[in-house]
Design brief:
It is found in: Cytoplasm. Residues 1-212 form the UCH catalytic domain. Pfam families: Peptidase_C12. The record marks 167 as: Important for enzyme activity. Strand 4 (162-166) and strand 5 (174-178) form a beta hairpin. By secondary structure, the protein is of the alpha+beta class. It contains 8 helices and 6 strands, in the order H-E-H-E-H-H-H-H-H-E-E-E-H-E. It has helices spanning 2-5, 22-25, 43-59, 78-88, 101-109, 114-123, 125-136, 184-198, and strands spanning 12-17, 32-40, 151-159, 162-166, 174-178, 206-212. It has one domain (1-212): Ubiquitin C-terminal Hydrolase UCH-l3 (3-Layer(aba) Sandwich). It has a 6-stranded antiparallel beta sheet with strand order 1-6-2-3-4-5, sandwiched between helices.
Length: 213
């Protein structure tokens, strides 16, 4: 529904990943071009995030310039930013309607920095309105923009044969190593498992795949 509102043809769809075991992964329609992970922001995670950032800043990492990455400056918009990350890094595979608001946003923001893209989204009415209306669906009460939500969305994508984690709260994309179109879902789920292993007491994890319809 959300994709349709943003003007994307229904040849791709978001489907639930019901479990991390091979037989459950085999139920997900292929190809898969992105995985969104919903997870809780806990103290353990925040400690890890700080350490990871320092480690990458010290050691450096290889990030292709073609990776589309944006920062998150709007509270509670991590789902929208996850979705933009998923679509933006697969835009060559998507069929957009002529008047698609998301297509316009991506074309306008391609040459911008991650910070400029975040600022642009703040003013980009069409996507914000869609985000707010979809946040109201399925919930009796949508969280207010200022309410502290401790669940967060990130996107995992394959750009040029590397698996990237895109999280608008982080200063840069995280390169998780090589992947391929065939192994992408399994490789992305391995990254999701690491999130779960860091917080074994937590149950609030949910993965969604952007799959061929």
């Amino acid at each position: 529904q959300f994709l349709k509102q943003l003007g994307i043809h229904p040849d791709w769809q978001f489907v639930d990943v019901y479990g991390m075991e091979p037989e459950l992964l085999s139920m997900v329609p292929r190809p898969v071009c992105a995985v969104l992970l919903l997870f809780p922001i806990t103290e353990k995670y925040e400690t890890f995030r700080t350490e990871e950032e320092e480690r990458i800043k010290a050691k450096g990492q290889d990030v292709k310039s073609s990776v589309y990455f944006m920062k998150q400056t709007i509270n509670n918009a991590c789902g929208t930013i996850g979705l933009i990350h998923a679509i933006a890094n697969n835009r060559d595979k998507m069929n957009f309607e002529t008047n698609s608001s998301l297509k316009r946003f991506l074309e306008d923001s391609l040459s911008m920095t991650p910070e400029e893209r975040a600022k642009y989204l703040e003013t980009f009415e069409a996507i914000r309105v869609t985000h707010e209306s979809s946040a109201h669906e399925g919930q009796t009460e949508a969280p207010s923009i200022d309410e502290k939500v401790d669940l967060h969305f990130i996107a995992l994508v394959n750009v040029g044969g590397h698996l990237y984690e895109l999280d608008g709260r982080k200063p840069f994309p995280i390169n998780h190593g090589e992947t391929s179109d065939d192994s992408f879902l399994e490789d992305a789920i391995e990254v999701c498992k690491k999130f779960m292993e860091r917080d074994p007491e937590e149950l609030r994890f949910n993965a969604i795949a952007l799959s061929a319809a």
